Amino acid sequence: MDLLQTYKDTDADDQRMSDQSSPDSSPPRLTIVPKSAAPKVDDTMLSLTVADAIANKSLTKPLDPTQHVVAFNPTYDQLWAPIEGPAHPYAKDGLAQGMRNHKLGFVENAAIEPFTFDEQYNTFYKYGYAADPSASAGYNYVGDLNALKQNDGISVYNIPQHEQKKRKLEKKKEALEKEGGDEAEEDKEEVENPATDAWLLKNRKSPWAGKKEGLQGELSEEQKKYAEDYAKKKGEEGDKNKDKGEGMSDKSTFHGKEEKDYQGRSWIAPPKDAKATNDHCYIPKRLVHTWSGHTKGVSAIRFFPKNGHLILSAGMDSKVKIWDVFNSGKCMRTYMGHSKAVRDISFCNDGSKFLTAGYDKNIKYWDTETGQVISTFSTGKIPYVVKLNPDDDKQNILLAGMSDKKIVQWDINTGQITQEYDQHLGAVNTITFVDNNRRFVTSSDDKSLRVWEFGIPVVIKYISEPHMHSMPSISLHPNGNWLAAQSLDNQILIYSTRERFQLNKKKRFAGHIVAGYACQVNFSPDGRFVMSGDGEGKCWFWDWKSCKVFRTLKCHNGVCIGAQWHPLEQSKVATCGWDGLIKYWD
Q1: What does each of the 586 residues of the chain score in pLDDT, given as a tens digit?
Q2: Residues 6+ apart with CB under 8 A from 301
Q3: Which of 298, 373, 285 lies closest to 331, judged by CA?
Q4: How distant, in Å, are the alpha carbons of 62, 123, 131, 164 from that of 153?
Q5: Which helix (H) or strand (E) holds 325?
Q6: What is the H or E stretch that residue 224 is in?
Q7: What is d(CA 445, CA 447) in angstroms, rounded to the nearest whole number?
């Protein structure tokens, strides 16, 4: 405590010393009260004015559509005002979605109904007066008021029936007075209007009943000359189109020793001992025979159905030849009926007849044994593929894929076209019957596959993908469940023949070069192997299950266009090429 007292006394002494040291000459310090020079203003009124301005501004300002809470009751104008400032993030033109009733924005309802508008519009153009749409109450009229009084204010839609009849009678009377009692011509408007009695009286015959009957005046010299030239031209066209294709006499030459043997059997009769020795097929290894006789390339070959003891070939030298396979190995008969290269050939079920399609626009139906042409068919277009219906009871029905995108169906017995399947966008290349011959699949230059019900010209399945190429050759698997299609992107694609005709992506056969060539694809009779020719003269064999290349044979100089497995001899294959040769491999 003594120490604290000492500190206190020391502080008091220091204070006293400082007061004594201040000079006497320093002026005294004065305190000045601050004053404002501005006049006094009533702040209450000012604050009320500012509040009103803010309130008015909030009442006129449009609502922000992005805000979730509105703190006051907005007016109708505020709710429906267009959004100002930057564009609304959810509406390109600045209109909120709730305000839109049209793709271009908000459209107000019209104050007048369409029927009322049409009524007034037509009344104005007919009578010269109409109701004023801007009138707030009652009917005020604009236009010709005299006509209004004369017609009692009627519109075009509410003329009474008796009034209409009266007007007709008045018009007729006026016309009679003008003509002096003679029959007057009816009003032009009435005569031309099909809804009036006058028109019905004048046109008792229906306007759809054909050409109007009337006396034809004499033709001028110019018209006569034109008619003669036209008739002459038509006559020439008629002569040309008698056959439609290019005409050529049909000939056939038999090259064998005799057409019938000592027992009276025909040369096309199959040998009795021709039977399949084994169900298992093998890949051929060596060349056993070569048939040469065509002066140009061979475009197609077909084995005789079921037995394969003869082979038919179509040549680019316009000839079709049939060769012996089992015995002599020589040409048995030559069929000459086309003036240009033969494109396709097809046997009937028993082999007694066959079809040929040539670039001379003709399809010919031949008797295999005698070499006579039974029928000739033509539409004036090039047939690319010909097929007979495989059903035994429909062997008289011929299908041909034409260069004009159509598949034409003929009845061979009558020679008449019975159906046209016209859906493709390019020339038709193949026709393949599936599903117990109830349907057929066609391929075309339009890079698509189309499936048809036989006899119905409506596509039931259309297969076209951006990656697809044209498929100039299609073959049916022996079990009937798959189609092998030669695609021009150097691969063979497999499609199911069930309802959906789906592409089997797991099976794809590649390695050969066929781009630009319609090389034939085919199966072995047991379905274990797939084979195809290629553009380099090779014949390729693939295993059906593994899709691997089994063997390749160098068969021809140039393109190997056709390859067929023998129907009975399981290890024998025939190939044909553009070198004019047909080769037999074992």
Answers
A1: 555 555 555 555 555 554 554 445 555 555 565 666 666 656 666 666 666 666 666 666 777 777 778 877 888 777 777 766 555 555 555 555 566 677 777 776 666 778 888 888 888 888 888 888 776 555 688 888 888 888 888 888 777 777 777 777 787 777 777 665 444 454 566 666 666 766 766 666 655 555 444 445 577 788 888 888 888 777 666 555 544 666 678 889 998 888 888 888 888 888 887 776 667 888 999 999 999 989 999 999 999 998 899 999 999 999 999 999 988 888 999 999 999 999 999 999 989 999 999 999 999 999 999 999 999 999 999 999 999 999 988 899 999 999 999 999 999 998 899 999 998 999 999 999 998 899 999 999 999 999 999 999 999 999 999 999 999 999 999 998 999 999 999 999 999 988 788 999 899 999 999 998 999 999 999 899 999 999 999 999 999 999 999 999 999 998 999 999 998 888 899 999 999 999 999 8
A2: 311, 312, 313, 314, 562, 564, 574, 575, 576, 582
A3: 298
A4: 48, 10, 9, 15
A5: none
A6: helix 221-240
A7: 5
First-to-last alpha carbon distance for the chain, in angstroms, is 138
pTM: 0.60
Q: How many residues does the chain have?
A: 586
Q: What's the rounded Cα separation, in Å, for the pair 577 and 562? A: 7
Question: What burial class does residue 403 get, using C-beta atoms within 10 Å of its C-beta: 0-12 exposed, 13-18 middle, 19+ buried?
Answer: middle
Q: Name the strands in the sheet holding 560-565, side by side, starting at the edge strand that comes first in the sequence.
A: 287-292, 581-585, 573-577, 560-565
In the block, which residue shows the tokens 């509406």? 91
Tokens 């798959």 locate to 482
**Beta partners for residue 377, in sequence order:** 363
Angle at CA of residue 156, ends 152 and 158, nearest 5°: 70
- Quote the CA–CA distance of 281 and 572 in Å, as a whole number: 9
The sign of the CA dihedral 547, 548, 550, 553 is positive
Q: Is 581 exposed, middle or buried (0-12, 13-18, 19+ CB in 10 A)?
A: buried
DSSP code, position 45? H
DSSP state of 37: -
State the Cα–Cα distance between residues 130 and 153, nearest whole angstrom. 9
* Distance from C-alpha of 484 to C-alpha of 471, rounded to nearest angstrom: 10
